[in-house]
Amino acid sequence: MKLSILGSSGTYPAPGRPASGYLVEHEGTRVWCDAGPGTFLALPIDNHLVDAIVLSHEHPDHCLDLITAFHAFRYGERTRSHVPVYCPSSVSAKVLRFVDDHEDGAMAETFDFNAVDDGDEVVVGGIKISFRRSDHSVPTVATRWQTNGRVMAYSADTGPEGDWMRAAEGADLFLCEASYQGKPGMSDYPYHLTAAEAGRIAREVGAKHLMLTHIPPHLEPSRSVAEAEVPFDRPVELAVPGASRKV
Ligand SMILES: [Zn+2]
Ligand SMILES: [Zn+2]
């Protein structure tokens, strides 16, 4: 499995740093996971080669570029239709409203929306993707990606509560959000993790490698890495836009 970072900026994009988005590839199968603003342009492959799209939740920093992709697929030189999209039903409800007021059914023709929730599993090519409801303010799914015995997990946006972290049990790579720095509980919005919580959870679930993502533009990422390394007790990686890594 190969993971490419399209963007990892938390909450909103910054110059050279698109918001959340990843490309997962395995034996010719290519899945675009989260479509934050800037990630469509950052795809390292022809966008016609994307086999499926996974969206963790309805917040704009994770799904706005689905609208960008819609325009490209519908009005581009080569059109595409019925591209599979896996997401909570609340995502498709919002996105469809954005476009279909003006163009009857166009979005639903371009994308085949498949609602997923806690406990669901889908197979795309040789990749099995399992979904768990995370601890966020809107319906959000964390994901576990499995191929030939290799496992990658993605926390999506989440707080520390619940059992979503089982998605990352024994993962070869755990891509985990770290929206905050410092002590837990400092923010009045409890639906994100501090870097130290990401490190603790990664250690508790036995993840072999931890990669931090969703760090907002106003925070210094090296401090997040240092804070996560204390509880994880091993070097921690950073999701750098444009970088790729084998899992
Ligand atoms: Zn977010
Ligand atoms: Zn969110």
Secondary-structure element string: EEEHEHHEHHEEEEEEHEHEE
How much helicity do the residues have?
A: 10-25%
Structural class: alpha/beta
Gyration radius, to the nearest Å?
17 Å
Mean pLDDT equals: 96
Main β-sheet description: 7 strands, mixed
Spans where pLDDT lies below 50 across 5 or more residues: none
Strand % is 25-35%
Give the strand tally: 14
Distance between the termini: 5 Å
Question: So how many helices?
Answer: 7
What's the shape? globular
Widest sheet: strand order?
A: 6-5-4-3-2-1-14
Q: Give a list of the ligands.
A: zinc ion
SSE diagram, text form:
Blueprint: E1 2-7, E2 21-26, E3 29-35, H1 39-42, E4 52-54, H2 60-63, H3 65-75, E5 83-87, H4 89-100, H5 106-110, E6 111-115, E7 121-124, E8 127-133, E9 141-147, E10 150-154, E11 173-177, H6 195-204, E12 210-213, H7 221-232, E13 237-238, E14 244-246
Parallel strand pairs: 3-4, 4-5, 5-6, 10-11, 11-12, 12-13
Antiparallel strand pairs: 1-2, 1-14, 2-3, 7-8, 8-9, 9-10
Helix pairs in contact: 6-7
Bound molecules: zinc ion (2 copies).
